[in-house]
Amino acid sequence: MSQTVSVAFVVEKEYQNPGGIAEIESILKSLGALSTTSGYATVSGQFTPAQIEKHFSVHVETVPPIESEEQDFGARGGYVTDAKPRIPTSLGGYVTSVSIEPPVTRHSE
């Protein structure tokens, strides 16, 4: 399986309900999302880097994992972009923003 990138979407207020979330998830799947997860006001989808370039008009760069140090537990690595992703036309009106989820650093106490 190819690597996937998590893309997060903030849902427009009128679609922050089970029916609206289901519509958005259906659109994401039509764009090729390999899986989706959702909350009350957000939806995330897993896309390949090629799908992101095609649908969101940005290039993703790989961020390597960071080894743990005394002050933190390191980071798992992930992806970043050098520009703001474009909201695909099919999602216009459904979401207010889209972002590539950044790598997470795990901090110690």
Q: Can you walk through the features of this model?
A:
- The chain has 109 residues and is an alpha+beta fold.
- It is built from two helices and eight strands.
- The strands form three sheets. The protein has a four-stranded antiparallel β-sheet. Strands 4-6 form a two-stranded antiparallel ribbon. It has a two-stranded antiparallel sheet with strand order 5-8.
- The mean pLDDT is 84.
Shape: globular
- Radius of gyration from CA coordinates: 15 Å
Q: Given the helix and strand composition, which structural class is it?
A: alpha+beta
**H/I helix tally:** 2
SSE run: EHEEHEEEEE
The total beta strand count reads: 8
Beta content: 25-35%
Residue share in helix? 10-25%
Strand order of the largest sheet: 2-3-1-7
Low-confidence stretches: none
Largest sheet: 4 strands, antiparallel
* Average residue-wise pLDDT: 84
| End-to-end C-alpha gap | 36 Å
Quickly list its features.
two-stranded antiparallel ribbon, 109 residues, 8 strands, 19% helix, globular, four-stranded antiparallel β-sheet, alpha+beta
Characterize this entry briefly.
19% of the residues lie in helices and 34% in strands. With 109 residues, the chain is an alpha+beta fold.
Topology:
Layout: E1 5-11, H1 18-30, E2 36-38, E3 42-47, H2 49-56, E4 60-63, E5 72-75, E6 78-81, E7 95-100, E8 105-107
Antiparallel strand pairs: 1-3, 1-7, 2-3, 4-6, 5-8
